[in-house]
Design goal:
- The chain starts with a helix and ends in a 12-residue tail after the last helix.
- The protein is globular.
- Helix 2 (36-49) runs antiparallel to helix 11.
- The chain is built from 11 helices and 10 strands.
- The longest helix has 16 residues, at 3-18.
- The chain is of the alpha/beta class and 259 residues long.
- It has 2 domains: 25-104 and 212-247, D-Maltodextrin-Binding Protein, domain 2 (3-Layer(aba) Sandwich), CATH 3.40.190; 106-209, Periplasmic binding protein-like II (D-Maltodextrin-Binding Protein, domain 2, 3-Layer(aba) Sandwich), CATH 3.40.190.10.
């Protein structure tokens, strides 16, 4: 084969390679279950500007994700329902960024069967509420705050025997949605989703009854050299991402609140 013919045959291949998009990036995010609807919306918005990149989100309990990351799980970003977990990872040298607060969470009473908007925690002592769903307080921040609120309101001793525990706040909401519990204490961000808002109702639990639910995220050490992780982290501060958080009931961190 002549050199000239070889170059002629090779030219289409060279042109094809030079017109390919830059190497696509990939990240896997570990996100607290209360973020399910908000984060799905945020990642969909992000993908519109980064169509060639892959963004995978896994939802679960913050405490379990913390343990998994400590054990080497290959997550690139960790969005926790309590900034305390990202801070502990940072102290252990397992992060590639400083933990940052991204929102303030709220807990609510929600039911798929009765109008919970007319109820308070004191109503949970009624015999009709024989099963009350909360997230496991041992590894779910929303469950920890639910227990704090029940104790602060003075009903803990009367209701603790009626509690059923979800592994995370998402499973807790499903217990109520499917009738496995008549009422539950769930995240406001879940109660605002149309699939939940169209049934029953919710009542916000006074914030004075539990510690502020300051939610935070961090880039893990696994993603130290992953530019897409840094790009996504920056996107969280964008107006579009913040508008989505607000839509799902998340508030900005009040000035003077220690994260």
């Amino acid at each position: 084969m002549s050199c000239r013919l070889f170059k002629f045959l090779l030219l289409p291949i060279i042109l094809a390679l030079t017109t390919l998009p830059a190497s696509a990036g990939s990240i896997t995010i570990a996100a607290a279950a209360d973020l399910k609807f908000a984060m799905d919306n945020i990642t969909a918005t992000f993908r519109k500007a980064h169509p060639d990149d892959s963004v995978k989100v896994i939802y679960g309990s913050s405490g379990k994700f913390y343990t998994q990351i400590r054990q080497g799980a290959p997550f690139d970003l960790f969005f926790s329902a309590d900034i305390g977990y990202p801070k502990k990872l940072a102290r252990a040298g397992l992060t590639a960024s400083t933990p940052r607060a991204y929102a303030l969470g709220r807990i609510v009473l929600w039911s798929a069967e009765v109008d919970a908007s007319k109820l308070s925690l004191e109503d949970l002592v009624k015999p009709s509420f024989d099963r009350i769903a909360v997230a496991n307080p041992q590894h779910a921040p929303y469950g920890e705050r639910a227990v704090e609120a029940l104790k602060s309101s003075g009903v803990w001793n009367q209701v603790k025997g009626k509690l059923v525990y979800g592994e995370n706040i998402g499973q807790t909401a499903q217990f109520v949605r499917t009738g496995n519990a008549r009422i539950g204490i769930i995240a406001l961000s879940l109660a605002l989703n149309p699939a939940f808002a169209s049934r029953g109702g919710y009542a916000t639990i006074p914030t004075r009854l539990y510690k502020p639910l300051i939610q935070g995220f961090v880039i893990t050490r696994h993603a130290a050299d992953n530019p897409l992780a840094k790009t996504f982290a920056k996107f969280i501060d964008s107006a579009s991402a913040q508008a989505i958080f607000k839509h799902y009931g998340f508030a900005r961190i009040p000035a003077g609140t220690a994260p």
